[in-house]
Amino acid sequence: MIVISDGSSAEIPPRMLSELEKKILRQKQSSPVMYQYPSVDALIFELKMRTHIVEAAKALYASGVSFGTFSNSRANEKYWIRTPDGGFLLRPGVQPAAAVNDIFENGHQYAFECAGAIIIILYKAVLETIGNASFNTYFPNLFLRDWQHDQDLQLITSNDLSETYPGDVMYFKNPQHDPATPEWQGENVIKLDDNLFFGHGIGIGSGQEMIAQLNRARAPGSTVSAYLQDLVLRPNFEIIRGISMREVEEVL
User: Fold this and answer.
1) What is the per-residue pLDDT for 247?
2) What confidence tens digit (pLDDT) does each residue in 131-175 have?
3) Number of other residues whose CB lies within 10 A of the CB of residue 3
4) If you ran DSSP here, which 8-state letter would residue 85 be given?
């Protein structure tokens, strides 16, 4: 169920929402878990950002980026400095929004691993939700490597697989992966829809397809299948909404 703290109704005019947002809203309304929001605006903000996460995941898939380990990662040198550990540091004088957008526009110049892909997707979704000006102000020192991220991109952890929604980050674990290919020890994914996920390096597919792909990378003689781990990550939507509100207040 959804509860709005200021006492207003959680009913949102359908014209304000996409089909995916309507679906997420219905699922939350019918859930036995109580989802509390300070205002209807906060609820709408989460719905919009979840949509942007899904859209960013699909855009990254279509961008032409390659999967790469830290040792063979690459980035467009116009925007990023590749560090010795395989990460990408924002080049001085470059606008953060422009650098993030370049990954999606010139994907053939990039290669990185799946955890970094998740952070890139989340940055892109934040950018699309709060706009270039706010993003450039509050995310000025981007460094892309593994799970490292800006302090304003706070992530919340849950272990409840019964309460997941499009835009959530999930993980398929491969406990008996081949030691020669540690990059296949699991796959970080974005939930796109009911039983539909995107994972950088595998692509878009169902949970069964993700597991089947990971199982092909098990050590010889393995008997334990890959599986969906009970770990769910999602941005702190209210913190990010606060960023956009601060920017508006400073303008006023």
Assistant:
1) 55
2) 999 999 999 999 999 999 988 899 999 999 999 999 999 999 999
3) 10
4) T
Tell me if 182 is assigned to some domain. yes
CA distances, 203 to each of 92, 112, 168 (Å): 33, 14, 16
User: Of 131, 129, 77, 128, which is closest to residue 99 (Cα–Cα)?
Assistant: 77
The total of other beta-carbon atoms located within 10 Å of residue 242's CB is 15
Whether residue 176 lies inside any domain: the answer is yes
Total domains in the fold of the chain: 1
DSSP-derived pairing of the beta strands 35-37 and 2-4? parallel
Flag whether 21 is in a domain: no
Q: Which residues contact 205 (CB under 8 A, 6 or more apart)?
A: 196, 197, 213
Instruction: Tell me if 184 is assigned to some domain.
Output: yes
CA angle 208–126–166, rounded 5-degree value: 25
Structural domain harbouring 213: 158-232
CA 250 centroid distance within chain: 28
Chain centroid to CA 222: 31
pLDDT category, 9, cuts 50, 70, 90?
Answer: low
Residue 80 has pLDDT above 50, yes or no: yes
Short-list 63, 187, 157, 169, CA closest to 122 = 169
The span from the CA of 168 to the CA of 188, in Å, is 11
Strands 186-193 and 88-90 turn out to be unpaired
Q: How confident is the model at residue 248 (pLDDT cuts 50, 70, 90)?
A: very low
In angstroms, the CA 202 to CA 198 distance is: 8
**Site of tokens 């422009």:** 98
